[in-house]
Structure formats: structure tokens, C-alpha cells
Amino acid sequence: MTVSSAPGKVYLLGEHAVVYGEPAVLCAIDRRATVTATARDDDRIRVQARDLTIDGFSVEYGDGVVDESANIDVPHPLIEAAVGYVDGAIEQVREVVDTTGFTITIESDIPLGAGLGSSAAVVVAAIDAATREMGVELTPEEIAQRAYRVEYDVQDGQASRADTFCSAMGKAVRVEGDDCRPIEEPPELPFVVGFDGSAGDTGTLVAGVRNLKEEYEFAADTVRTIGDIVRTGERAITTEDQRELGRLMNFNHGLLSALGVSSRSLDAMVWAARDAGAFGAKLTGAGGGGCIVALDPTPDTATALQYTPGCEETFRAELDHDGVRVESE
Ligand SMILES: Nc1ncnc2c1ncn2[C@@H]1O[C@H](COP(=O)(O)OP(=O)(O)OP(=O)(O)O)[C@@H](O)[C@H]1O
Ligand SMILES: C[C@@](O)(CCO)CC(=O)[O-]
Ligand SMILES: [Mg+2]
């Protein structure tokens, strides 16, 4: 039995634009997906993902199809879409090791589809746990590369390397096209997360931005401007200027909103954070619903979010210096 875990992340700046080669800066946070891989005597692959629920059903399946014993009463295409990332991870493992069967159990404290990189963390941890269980040790960079292939396929050929690289490496990272690098001395930023309890589908949201960009030159300009914000933000990271970073996050949120990936509840949480005195606030990840991230060293933003209609949960997130790691072998 091998247990591996990998962190989720928040985007300081640059989501969506990073898909088109602009830079992005993101930070691993102290919320993790944990995957247990256990070799089996038969050649079956069994996945238990208790957090993955569809209309209240927990999904359990074997050999890529819904397991009879799970007794799930929802159409198979829905399940197939939901298990796409896990299936992709298993495919990657099969490219590396000659597997017989194994059982994969996924537990995660990263909300699904909420912009905190649950997909990347699950895929990274699953590839690590299953390959180790079969006696192969991949480097974090190799795991990031394979996990990226999975995100690329599930998101219909439109994905950046950002989420998977950040989850595999931990700390803060800068990604621009194929150029992925850790930020050596990342500042400890006072992240406050607000979660509206809902989810957005990354593939669909990415496709929406792509269509807008193809239709309007000013949407393409908006994407390039997000790149300019990130380049400016890098100086603020080096000088640890949190006020300046906050202003740039606000600007970034405005442009993401213009690209159609914010929502009423995300905007409400962003404004509640700003009104409470946060240095800045923006949605994180694909958007459409899910989480915002604000910078506030005081308790005021968290308190304001607790009273914001539409906000279901708020918590402080700490930078996680560890990327993918083995918990037990
Ligand atoms: N605990 C889990 N168990 C099984 N599958 C999971 C789990 N968490 C996430 N996933 C997979 O990841 C999908 C959500 O990924 P998606 O990219 O849409 O959102 P996200 O990664 O949470 O947010 P973002 O990409 O915006 O950071 C789920 O539908 C499921 O396929
Ligand atoms: C929206 C996006 O930029 C981030 C999702 O967390 C998609 C990607 O980078 O693949
Ligand atoms: Mg994702």
C-alpha cells in the first residue's frame, strides 16, 4: 500500500491567460488530495472516490466503467465526465509500469471544481502513489509532465502546465508556456479564501474564453493585458509589496470578469473583501463559481465573508512548501 498526497493552489495572478502562453504566478496551499494505491492479485482497477458525488451519489467504479455494486442511478456519460481525470491518471500509470490490478482510493480536502486545483492535485497524487506502488519512482517534474497530459486531454486540448506543475512542486511557481519554474523565495502572503459552495467546469470555462478571444480582438487584447499585469506583479512579489499585489489582483479580477468567467457570488465575495479592507481580491482558477482569494493580514475579510450572502465557507490558506509527497509506503 502506498499513500501520496499533493496540494491544491491559488492563482495570485494570470489564470486563463496562461493557457495562451502568458505568464502566471500561483501558490500551493495547505489543502491536499491524498491517494492510496494498493496492488491487487487480479487485473482489475478499482477506484473509490468518496468526495466525487453526482447528485448525491458517490462514485465507485472498476475498469473505467461504473461498478455494478455501486448501484449508481445516473447516466454513464455524466460519470465518465466526472471520472475523466482519474481515468487519465491511470492511463499515465499504465504507460510507465506494467500493471496488474490495483485499487485507488481518493480523499481530498480541496473542494471540487472550485478553482483550488482539485483536478491537478488528484492526478498528481494518483500518478505518484500508483507508480511507487509498482516500484517506480518518478521525479516531481516527470509527474507534472504526465499530469499535464491528463489536464490537456480532459480540457479538450486547452490547458496550461500551471496547476499540475504547482501541485507537483509546491511553494510558488511561475509558468509561461513550457517554461515552468519554482519561485525560490516566495513571500508568505496573507491569503483568505471565500467559497460559494458551487463549482465550475474548467474545460467549459476555458472553451468560453477561447471563443470570445477568437470572436473579438479586444478579448484577445484583454488576455494579453492579463499577461502585462502578471509581469508587473512579479516586481511586487520580489519587493513583497502586498498593497501593490492587491491592486493588481483587483485589476486582474476585473479583466477575468470581462472575459465572462466570474459570477454573481464571486463578485459579491470580491467586493466584501475589498470593503473589509483587503489589499485586493480576485477569483482563483477557472471561475464560474467556487472560490475567491483575498490578501488580508487582519481577520476583517474573513469576518466580512462570513456575513456575505452567497459565501458558504471562508478559511485562511497558508503557502505549502511541499509539492507531491509520499505519506507512507
Ligand atoms: N476528490 C476527488 N475525487 C475524484 N475526482 C476528483 C476529486 N477532486 C477533483 N476531482 C476531479 O476533478 C474535477 C474537477 O476539476 P476542475 O478542473 O473542473 O476543477 P478544479 O481543478 O477544482 O478547479 P480549477 O481547475 O479551476 O483550479 C472533478 O469533476 C473530478 O473529475
Ligand atoms: C483556467 C486555467 O488557467 C486554470 C484552472 O485552474 C486553466 C489552465 O491553466 O489549464
Ligand atoms: Mg482543474
UniProtKB/TrEMBL annotation:
Q: What is its main location?
A: cytoplasm
This protein's pathway reads: Isoprenoid biosynthesis; isopentenyl diphosphate biosynthesis via mevalonate pathway; isopentenyl diphosphate from (R)-mevalonate: step 1/3
Catalytic reaction annotation? (R)-mevalonate + ATP = (R)-5-phosphomevalonate + ADP + H(+)
Locate the active site: D163
Record-annotated GHMP kinase N-terminal domain positions: 85-171
Keyword vocabulary terms for this entry = ATP-binding, Cytoplasm, Isoprene biosynthesis, Kinase, Lipid biosynthesis, Lipid metabolism, Magnesium, Nucleotide-binding, Transferase
One short Pfam name that applies is: GHMP_kinases_N
Q: Which cofactor does it need?
A: Mg(2+)
GO terms for cellular component: cytosol
Q: What class of enzyme is it?
A: transferase
Q: Where does ATP bind?
A: P111, L112, G113, A114, G115, L116, G117, S118, S119, A120, A121
**Could you tell me where this protein is found in the cell?**
Cytoplasm
Q: Which GO terms describe its molecular function?
A: ATP binding; galactokinase activity; magnesium ion binding; mevalonate kinase activity
- Annotated ranges, domain GHMP kinase C-terminal: 236-305
In short, the EC number is: 2.7.1.36
UniProt cross-references to InterPro entries, sorted A to Z: Galactokinase, GHMP_kinase_C_dom, GHMP_kinase_C_sf, GHMP_kinase_N_dom, GHMP_knse_ATP-bd_CS, Mev_gal_kin, Mevalonate_kinase_arc, Ribosomal_Su5_D2-typ_SF
Gene3D superfamilies associated with the record: 3.30.230.10, GHMP kinase, C-terminal domain
Q: Which NCBIfam families match?
A: mevalon_kin
What the protein does comes down to: Catalyzes the phosphorylation of (R)-mevalonate (MVA) to (R)-mevalonate 5-phosphate (MVAP). Functions in the mevalonate (MVA) pathway leading to isopentenyl diphosphate (IPP), a key precursor for the biosynthesis of isoprenoid compounds such as archaeal membrane lipids.
Q: State the oligomer form and interacting partners.
A: Homodimer.
Family in the record: Belongs to the GHMP kinase family. Mevalonate kinase subfamily.
Name of the protein = Mevalonate kinase
User: Species name for this entry?
Assistant: Halocatena salina
Gene that this polypeptide is encoded by: mvk
